[in-house]
Amino acid sequence: MPEVISRAAPPAAEPPEPPAAEDDAPTRHTAAQRAGQVLSAAWRPALLLILLGVGWWAITAAEVFPAYLVPTPGDVANELVTEREMLARHTWVTTYETVLGFLLAAAIGMLAAVLIVYSPTLEKALYPLILFAQVIPKIAIAPILVVWFGFGPMPKVILAVLIAFFPVVVSGVAGLRSTDPELLDLSATMGASRWKTFRKIRFPNSLPHLLSGLKVAVTLAVVGAVVGEFVGADEGLGYVLLLASGNLNSSLLFADLILMSALGVVLFVIVEAAEALLIPWHASRRQGVPLTTS
Fold first, then answer.
1. Does pLDDT of 114 surpass 80?
2. Cα(111)–Cα(92) distance, integer angstroms
């Protein structure tokens, strides 16, 4: 009988060890850093607002000014609560006029900047007209716009465009002209078209300047919309301001001013957030770059 040679079975392969859990300490560290940066940037203005509120309360408590001139913070807060529906409706009207005017100013201003940079002839023709339109007081144009377009939102939007247009053009021209000439020469040498050069080199390089101009323009657009409501309107925060002033309702007047300021701040923060998303590569957006010496 042949000998049966038993062969030992090969040892079973050991199951692979589960992958080690990724260390999330760097993530936590980065989140903690960002939270610390936010707190570091926010505590100073928050403290200043608190001090201003305390000073406001102290002045009204000491009755330095009559109540019909300077209301107490409590009266203003009560006005914001009791008239919230009316104020919300008028705030929405002003917000709509401001945002629409700002978007139109951004689009038209950037188009004008491109034309000025790419055409010396148009630069000589457009720049004097743009400067001429900028120096005209917008409050003088508002009645004409009301006569032409009525009491609807159109005059307010046009005024917002006229006021916000100039910083967009100036910043756009500065940004488009700040491109390194060697990059432009290299692009031309490699056969890139003018459109591709603009899309890949000139426009991305102009974003830091352009976004700085847009942050100025969005706050000026609020001013333009409110100025238009001063002249002829039956709704909007400017209309509420005139109404409160005519009725000597200082609480409503202060509440309206607070809403105007809040609208400008919110829109500014939105453009600031867009800047952080669009140009994270810029030196001003890098983590750890101090903006002040303190």
1. yes
2. 29
Q: Cα 266 to chain center, whole Å?
A: 7
- Specify the DSSP class assigned to residue 283: G
Q: What is the Cβ-side half-sphere exposure of residue 183, based on CA atoms within 13 angstroms?
A: 15
The residues, any chain, with a CB within 8 Å of residue 170's CB and separated by 6 or more, are 213
pLDDT digits (tens, 9 = 90+) for 259-280: 999 999 999 999 988 888 887 7
Instruction: For the beta carbon of residue 233, count every other beta carbon within 10 angstroms.
Output: 25
Number of domains in the chain: 2
Confidence of residue 284 (pLDDT cuts 50, 70, 90): low
Residue 10 lies in a domain: no
Instruction: Tell which residue, 254, 240, 236, 90, has the closest CA to residue 159.
Output: 236
Helical axes 73-82 vs 250-278, angle rounded to 10°: 80
Global confidence as pTM: 0.76
Q: What percent of the chain has pLDDT over 90?
A: 14
57 and 147 co-located in one domain:
no
Could you read off the pLDDT of 34-92 as tens digits, one per residue?
656 656 666 777 777 788 777 777 777 777 777 777 787 888 888 888 888 888 999 99
CA distances from 181 to 89, 145, 176, 178, 194 (A): 51, 43, 11, 9, 14
> Under the phi-then-psi rule, with left for phi > 0, alpha for psi from -120 to 50, and beta for the rest, what region is 119?
beta
Residues 131 and 189 in one domain: yes
DSSP letters spanning 75-140: HHHHHHHHTHHHHHHHHHHHHHHHHHHHHHHHHHHHHHHHHHHH-HHHHHHHHHHHHHHHHS-HHH
| Domain shared by 242 and 112, yes or no | yes
Boundaries of domain holding 118: 71-285
